[in-house]
Amino acid sequence: MILPAERELRTALARFAEARIEYDASGGRRCGRALEDATYTLCVLTGARTPDEALAAADALLRRYCAHTKSATHEDKTLAA
User: Fold this and answer.
1) CB-based contacts of 60-64 (< 8 A; 24+ apart in sequence)
2) Gyration radius from the chain CA atoms
3) Predicted TM-score of the model (pTM)
4) What span, in angstroms and rounded, lies between the C-alpha atoms of 25 and 30?
5) DSSP string, 18-76
6) Mean pLDDT, the chain, integer
7) In the prediction, which pLDDT does 27 show?
8) In 3-state terms, what secondary structure has residue 81?
């Protein structure tokens, strides 16, 4: 699976959250299409089939990105010392 860029994943998560909030605030009467589009995008980016799976996969990817960033920062400090 090709991993999405961290920025692209964070943008998709933000769009999903915004659409979900709007949908819930309207009692499901508005923004259904925006939520469907955001859910689809998030599922495609994470290779998931359901919104719950996509959110879990996104969380795992973000932890991976964070660990990689911390590791790279630590390595840079070690090399500079």
Assistant:
1) 61/3, 61/4, 61/6, 61/9, 62/6, 62/9, 62/10
2) 16
3) 0.78
4) 9
5) HHHHHHHHTTTSS-HHHHHHHHHHHHHHHT-SSHHHHHHHHHHHHHHHHHHHHHHHHHH
6) 87
7) 86
8) coil
Cβ–Cβ under 8 Å, residues 46 and 54: yes
Tokens of 51: 């919104």
> Where does residue 53 rank: exposed (0-12), middle (13-18), buried (19+ CB within 10 A)?
middle
Phi-psi region of 50 (alpha: psi -120 to 50; beta: other; left: phi over 0): beta
What backbone torsions phi and psi does residue 49 show, to the nearest 5 degrees?
Answer: -105, -20
Whether the predicted pLDDT of 1 surpasses 70: no
User: Six-digit token pair at 15?
Assistant: 């769009």
| pLDDT at residue number 72 | 61
